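Anyone have tokens for Cellulose binding domain-containing protein? Sequence:
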Amino acid sequence: MRSSPRPFAALVAALALTAGLSLIGTPAVARSDDAPAATKASDVSIAADTYTWKNARIDGGGFVPGIVFNRSEKNLAYARTDIGGAYRWDQSGKQWKPLLDWVDWDRWGWTGVVSLASDTVDPDNVYAAVGTYTNSWDPTDGAVLRSSDRGASWKAATLPFKLGGNMPGRGMGERLAVDPNKNSVLYLGAPSGNGLWRSTDAGATWSEVTAFPNPGNYAQDPSDTSGYGNDNQGIVWVTFDERSGSAGSATQDIYVGVADKENTVYRSTDGGATWSRIPGQPTGYLAHKGVLDSATGHLYLTLSDTGGPYDGGKGRIWRYDTASGAWQDVSPVAEADTYYGFSGLSVDRQKPGTLMATAYSSWWPDTQIFRSTDSGATWTQAWDYTGYPNRSNRYTLDVSSVPWLSWGASPAPPETAPKLGWMTEALEIDPFDSDRMMYGTGATVYGTEDLTAWDSGGTFRITPMVKGIEETAVNDLASPPSGAPLLSALGDIGGFRHTDLDAVPDLMYTSPNLDSTTSLDFAESSPGTVVRVGDSDAAPHIGFSTDNGTNWFQGSEPSGVTGGGTVAAAADGSGFVWSPEGAGVHHTTGYGTSWTASTGIPAGATVESDRRNPEKFYGFEAGTFYVSTDGGATFTAKATGLPAEGNVRFQALPGTEGDIWLAGGSDTGAYGLWRSTDSGATFTKSAGVEQADSVGFGKAAPGASYRTVFVSAKIGGVRGIFRSTDAGASWTRINDDAHQWGWTGAAITGDPRVYGRVYVSTNGRGIQVGETSDSGGGGTDPGTDPGPEQPADAACAVTYAITNQWPGGFQADVTVTNTGDAAYDGWKLGWSFPGGQQISQIWNASHRQDGVKVTVTDAGWNGTVAPGSSAGFGFTGSWTGSNAEPAAFTLDGQACTVG
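Reply: yep, here.
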């Protein structure tokens, strides 16, 4: 699958930013460092609430450019993605566990992982170099994350430059490496001319290796002025020769790959003090990988004429004898016969001289995988022609666990469906098991557990080994009142009809096949009627369904359409309004056999439908709201003064005409959440919502008269996913700091059939599904503002629960219940710790601690607690000796019941 660059700013403008399991065990979380300014650390803490989270299963869906096996512990492996974080392999479940879901909104770029390193000396240590773009699209510098518990928790050292997990050349590597003899020493190859960097304190601080002579000079497209294609790809891999060191002493021989076609490999023989270009090396190519077989002393290079990961028209494989200094071209095919570059490269640590490589950029008719058992002297390949166009395969490929990988294709030979893949820049043989091999593609991770059958003339079985990796970029979501609970619009792979959230769908949308679906909608009173639009290389850019998305047919389109834009279905399915890229807003009746230009609304406007009146449609562009009452034929400008810049999304409330919620804006202008109850004639800004980026509706809480409102927003200084069960009068944060997923602003919707269930878009971590254990709908909110004093006659009950504990630290949740007859108008809770515990961080409240005495104050918007309702907060703290629970609590000096 082609994994697009996904520039953040461009995706926002197009409404397109990219069985998963909820985290088991301690959630991954970054913790603080005390470090110099150039390598300052970042903090992320854990919060807890009544929600549990999982993915709507798709399994894969994006580029996996790196797979790393630990070489001293069996079954310990990691995978990196270009925009969707990092994962650890769970052998017991044959699945991957996400490690970077804690990355927050402000540091969304840290979801792009440019390199991973697993420590051979201490397998508990793992490192990740993170940052998505090296240009202005990513607002933050890159960082090296380090974990001493296999990714369960993290510390971060921020670098004084950016990293490019989703930049050209991201399949090369690994750029990050741990010295296999002295694990306090690490190296990092930097892009953008920033050179080679080294840490001597296990990743806590970093400094440039000023003696390294070449920062690289290759850029994919020097004429590109965006900073994307013209960025210098820099230092692309680091490889140690562990034979040149001993336990506790730094490795002396280090090899480094550089994005420079004339000078692509350098070596140090004195532990990194001095460096020199290796003489006799191949020129005219970039070394995507450099892997050393320590048993034979051979360093292998896979080379391509470009940095990848999509392109590459010529390639070679070379071998360097580290003892003699001799170079040899050991390519499996003649240079004239290549139309691809080589990248994926691995040696079998159990069988010296056995190695494999991939033709990463061969899309047609398929990728190719090569294998040698004699140090590259001779090769065999995964498939051969038996007489064009027929081919013989050494493998079988079973995608029954992820059936959509067939893409619904029925190609003519020599193509097959499913294919072995494309963008195959990561291939690794398990260092403990010659029969297990995994490789990444643009859409999945494939693997085998009987690889050596290749050598005996048999066939080996390839299957997806991708369960748990959810890497789709989600552009839009819809949850109809009947039929499938969820319809998705996804980047790169179109989208799915999800009939079972815990099962992989059979196939993405077809007829038409859209590269990326940018918008979809259903008719509120006739949910079998669904429309979707998106991007593709050719028309049509629109499809319709009359059976709730099970089957589709292509629609016609106005002239000039170049992309999907946004689309809206009339409440009863009688017509549609479409605002495509390349053409103005248009409307149609029926299923789009012909389109008529709408008047009174500018091109590029975002369009939605009223969910009750089929003649009423809405539009928004540049601060002005537009309304049509004649099925989209004419629009009239209504409310103004809304956000004139930034991302703006709005939704109309199901079942009520004219009730509209609008979210969006920018830091430099209006930003927040607005509501109209008069069909867009006027809007009122929601107090207390500082920023909001998407809004949606779910089933009303028990006893509530208004549907539950969900937003991706910033409230009280805290970014998160929020829920309101009282039409926005109060808000509850329903995610926690361990579940933030970077950027979540594209789309959000509740489920109209299940109270509390919410579907959240991410840019690379798929569709997140939140389920609540709260049956009522009361809640708590984050913040720091203290509330007013509570009435003296209020009564209270308190529950205090330690939810997680580790040596020297713990996490606790506290719930305050109003057992009186009058509402609290603000509250202050007090107690004394019996064991001298100290609160380190608190959420959904603020606190003051004086010795053992603690006073916790509401967060402002959770200060009003009705009789019978509750407010809650949580915190992390430290303890020594014992961690006994407090025995008594007071609310404004009045004793509470403890239960």
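Confidence is low (pLDDT under 50) at residues 1-32, 34-48, 777-794.
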